[in-house]
Write a structure and sequence with these properties.
CATH topology of the largest domain: Rossmann fold
Distance between the termini: 30 Å
Number of strands: 15
CATH superfamily of the largest domain: Response regulator
Number of helices: 9
CATH architecture of the largest domain: 3-Layer(aba) Sandwich
Radius of gyration: 20 Å
Helix content: 25-40%
Strand order of the largest sheet: 2-1-3-4-5
Number of domains: 2
Largest sheet: 5 strands, parallel
C-alpha cells in the first residue's frame, strides 16, 4: 500500500459534472490524495484501476455497460471502495448492514468529510498494523472479514438491480457480427463466436468457421453482447462461456481458460477471476 503522502484515487461515474464535483471536494478535504483517473463506466474503471493501482475507488452504482457492482468485484481486496448512489433506500440499507462506505447523491461536503475521515483511519491502521487491516486477516472469521461483508453487500445489490431492471444492459443483445472477408461481408452468428480479442483499433473475432478482424473495439462489443453468455476475462479478451471446457486456477489469483476442441489457452487476469468464482 502507498504511504499516506502518496495515496491515489479513482472516480467512476457516467456523469461528468458529478465526477468533477467529487474531485473538487476531495482536493479541498484531502489534499494529500491524488485523483489519478476518472472513468465513465465500470469497464473503464477496471481498466484504469489496473493501469494506476489506486488506493481508493469511488464507484457510482448505476453506470452503463458494466455497473459499479460488477466493477467492485474486480477491484475488491485491492483498494478501499466508496459507493456513490442515488437516494434508493434498499442500497443505503445494504451499505449500512455491511459497514461499507457510501455517498448518496446529491452529496454534500460534510458527508464526504465523514467518509474521508474513516478512510484516513483505515490507512493509518494499515500502516501501523498491516495484518489487522488486511481483508484476509486470520484474526477474523471468513464470515466477518471485510472482504466477506463486501461480497455479501454486492450480492444483495446485484439482486436488487436485476429485479428493478437497472443493470444497464441493452434490452436486445447482439445477434450477428458483420465481418469483411476479402470482397464480401460475412454475417457471423454470435452463438458461433468462441472468443474476441482486442487488436489495437480492431477486434479479432474467432468463431467456429474461422477468424476475422472487424472495425469495432472490444469495449463497444462488450456492451452489446449477452452478459449471460459472454464475459470479459482479460482487458483484451472476451470469451463465450458455452465454448469453455474448464478453468484452471493459477498463481496470484489468476487463471487459464481451456476451450472445447481447441488448443489455445486464454489467460484470465486477476481483475476478472471473480467471474468464475460466482459460478
Amino acid at each position: 500500500m502507498n504511504t499516506a503522502a502518496s495515496l491515489k484515487a479513482l472516480i467512476a461515474d457516467d456523469e461528468p459534472l458529478l465526477r468533477e464535483r467529487l474531485r473538487s471536494h476531495l482536493t479541498r478535504l484531502w489534499p494529500e490524495l491524488e485523483v489519478v483517473a476518472q472513468a465513465r463506466n465500470g469497464r473503464e474503471a477496471v481498466e484504469l484501476f489496473d493501469l494506476h493501482a489506486p488506493d481508493v475507488v469511488f464507484l457510482d452504482v448505476h453506470m452503463p455497460g458494466v455497473n459499479g457492482i460488477e466493477a467492485a468485484r474486480s477491484v475488491a481486496r485491492r483498494a478501499q471502495i466508496v459507493f456513490v448512489t442515488a437516494h434508493e433506500q434498499y442500497a443505503v440499507q445494504a451499505f449500512e448492514q455491511g459497514a461499507i462506505d457510501y455517498l448518496v447523491k446529491p452529496f454534500d461536503e460534510a458527508r464526504l468529510a465523514d467518509t474521508v475521515g474513516r478512510l484516513k483511519q483505515r490507512f493509518a491502521l494499515a500502516k501501523d498494523s498491516p495484518d489487522a487491516a488486511s481483508p484476509d486477516s486470520s484474526l477474523e472469521s471468513a464470515e466477518s472479514s471485510p472482504a466477506a461483508r463486501l461480497e455479501a453487500v454486492l450480492d444483495r445489490l446485484a439482486a436488487e438491480l436485476k429485479q428493478r431492471g437497472h443493470a444497464g444492459r441493452p434490452a436486445a443483445p447482439l445477434q450477428w457480427i458483420k465481418a469483411s472477408i476479402g470482397s464480401s461481408v460475412r454475417l457471423i452468428p454470435v452463438e458461433q463466436v468462441i472468443y474476441l480479442r482486442a487488436d489495437e483499433k480492431y477486434t479479432l473475432v474467432v468463431w467456429e468457421g474461422g477468424e476475422a478482424l472487424i472495425r469495432k473495439t472490444l469495449r463497444e462489443l462488450a456492451d452489446e453482447l449477452d452478459p449471460e453468455c459472454f464475459v470479459q476475462i482479460h482487458r483484451s479478451t472476451i470469451v463465450n462461456l458455452r465454448q469453455v471446457s474448464q478453468v484452471n486456477r493459477g498463481l496470484n489469483e489468476t487463471a487459464e481458460v481451456q476451450l472445447k476442441g481447441r488448443k489455445e489457452v486464454l489467460p484470465v487476469s486477476r481483475s476478472f477471476v471473480h467471474v468464475f468464482k460466482q459460478m
